[in-house]
Structures are given as structure tokens and as C-alpha cells.
Design a protein that fits this description.
Blueprint: H1 3-16, H2 19-26, H3 30-44, E1 49-51, E2 56-58, H4 60-88, E3 92-98, H5 100-117, E4 121-127, E5 141-145, E6 154-161, E7 163-167, H6 169-175, E8 189-192, E9 200-205, E10 208-213, E11 219-220, H7 223-231, E12 236-240, H8 241-250, E13 254-256, E14 261-262, E15 265-271, H9 279-297
Helix pairs in contact: 1-2, 1-3, 1-4, 2-3
């Protein structure tokens, strides 16, 4: 027996003084209504209704229970309305975890536009390559790059990262531009590798899928470090397109090996649950998808 439901059923029987009328109102069978009230009486250890062949009436104990439970039911209904309103209206603290490179270069600049649109939402972003436990640590959204391991988390793709080869104009003047992946063996490399990510990247060249193994001579774990090292003119680096675009546009870096088309590396937003997604998380994911779709198209 579910106590709150049984209390409501009893209230309807007392109001109509009839099991049949209450059953019609509640869209239950008369037998179900009678059974529920009987179970409630057994649970409380008192008779709540006097039953005759013509009608039913609350006993003194029933009247006391009816009066005392009315306030409780009103409070429960108020609480239910508040929770629904919070869930359906974007508000409150949104906790986000994001990988470092994308978080610094793309996510952080995108957030002010989101907050302008949803002023009742506050946001806290943890930018780190640490894999968080979303449920245990109470994160609403996590941003991750590349293929996902089997998980109970719900994933939504928000962007496609493309890795491109870059170097400074000064480096290219001094050492020349590579024309093939094989040429890179004769060039200085700056490799971004974090755990297993970054050791290999795939490219399409003349309709063939090629795998490029990142040299492990000068290794850094963050895209910022790889970019900053490349800007010294020491060697070439493989950077995410979102990370290198501004430097290429300004002439600080040169895009190398343009004929080698990088295989997309999807960037996902993860959520703990598919059902009952809070409005603040739902609108955040919609905003990121629209924002980065426009950036990708541009």
C-alpha cells in the first residue's frame, strides 16, 4: 500500500460517501477503492468508515484523520509543484566537467552567451582531463573527446574536432614544408599525448585511410603547451582545428599537409540520465549544439 495514495482515496470516499462515486472520480474499480481503504484501516489499526448498504460515513477516527491529513496532502502537492517548476524552468547551479583544451578554448568563451540567455542559471566548470564520477560527484554535464568507452551515461555530440598539422612561417622557411606524412620523419615534432589519446591520428588521403603515429620525442599533455611550443618555431605540431584557427588566420601559424583530411574526432556532452533531465542541463546542451554547429559551419 502506498500511504499517500491511500489517503487520497480515503478522502474521496469520505467526500462522496460512496465507494462507487469515488471509484468513478479516481478512475479505479470499486473493488480497488474498497481494498485500498481496507488496507489503510489495517495499517492505522482503526476503522475509518462506517459502511451500510446505503452509504458510507467517516467514523470519529476517520474525521480526525481526514482533517489532519488534509494539510499534509496540500504540502505534498505544493512540494510536487515546486519540484516540477524547478525541473521545467532553467534555474539553479549547473555543474560541468570539461577536458582542458576544449574547455579553455571553446567552452569558456561560449558560456557568457548562455548565461545572458538564461539569467536564472549559475554555472561552475571544472576544467581538467580527470575522468569524474558524474553521479558520485554530482555533475550535470561532462565534456569528453573521441570514442567513448562503454558507459551507462547518455552522450550527445556537440562538435567535431579535426586535428591539423601546423608550424610557424619561420620554421617553414628554415626547414621547408613537408609534402607527405612520410616527410614529417625529417622534421622536428611537438606531440600532444595524454594517456592513450593522441598516440595515433587518422587521415584520408586520395580516398585511403592512413594512420599517423605521433613521434614521442617532445611530448606535452595539453594543447596549450603544444601550441606555445610550436609558436617558438621549434617544430611542427598537430593541433585541434578550434585551437589553431586564430593563429592561422593571423599568420602566426601555417596549415601544413592540407591534402590530408583529418578524420573527425567527435566531442560529446555526457549526462547521467536520459529521463528527467533538468531543464538547466537540457537547455545547456541545446545551446552548445547550436553554438558549435554555427562555429563548425563557419
Amino acid at each position: 500500500m502506498e500511504f499517500v495514495h491511500a489517503t487520497r482515496v480515503f478522502g474521496e470516499v469520505a467526500r462522496f460517501e460512496s465507494f462507487t462515486a469515488a471509484a468513478k472520480e479516481l478512475r479505479l474499480s470499486t473493488a480497488s477503492v474498497s481494498r485500498i481503504v481496507g488496507e489503510l484501516e489495517n495499517d492505522l489499526g482503526v476503522r475509518l468508515l462506517n459502511r451500510t448498504t446505503r452509504r458510507v460515513q467517516p467514523t470519529d477516527a476517520g474525521l480526525d484523520f481526514l482533517r489532519d491529513s488534509a494539510g499534509l496532502l496540500d504540502e505534498i502537492e505544493s512540494l510536487r509543484s515546486q519540484i516540477r517548476e524547478r525541473h521545467n524552468s532553467p534555474r539553479g547551479l549547473l555543474r560541468v566537467s570539461s577536458v582542458t583544451g576544449f574547455g579553455n578554448e571553446c567552452l569558456a568563451p561560449a558560456i557568457p552567451g548562455f548565461l545572458e540567455r538564461y539569467p536564472d542559471v549559475r554555472i561552475s566548470v571544472d576544467i581538467s582531463n580527470r575522468v569524474v564520477d558524474m553521479i558520485e560527484e554530482h555533475y550535470d554535464v561532462a565534456i569528453r573527446v573521441g570514442p567513448l568507452e562503454d558507459s551507462t551515461l547518455v552522450a550527445k555530440k556537440i562538435y567535431n574536432q579535426r586535428m591539423i598539422f601546423v608550424a610557424t612561417p619561420e620554421y617553414c622557411e628554415r626547414f621547408g614544408k613537408p609534402k607527405t606524412l612520410g616527410d614529417l620523419k625529417r622534421h622536428r615534432s611537438i606531440s600532444q599525448i595524454n594517456g592513450e589519446w593522441g598516440r595515433e591520428h587518422q587521415f584520408i588521403y586520395k580516398k585511403k585511410l592512413l594512420t599517423f603515429k605521433n613521434p614521442e620525442y617532445f611530448i606535452v599533455s595539453s594543447p596549450s603547451a603544444a601550441r606555445n611550443a610550436a609558436l617558438t618555431g621549434y617544430g611542427y605540431a598537430l593541433l585541434g582545428n578550434y585551437f589553431a584557427t586564430r593563429d592561422i588566420t593571423s599568420g602566426r601559424l601555417v596549415h601544413l599537409l592540407k591534402d590530408y583530411k583529418p578524420v573527425d574526432q567527435p566531442i560529446f556532452a555526457l549526462m547521467p540520465h536520459r529521463r528527467y533531465v533538468p531543464a538547466k542541463a537540457r537547455v545547456f546542451l541545446d545551446y552548445l549544439t547550436d553554438h558549435f554547429s554555427e562555429a563548425d559551419a563557419g
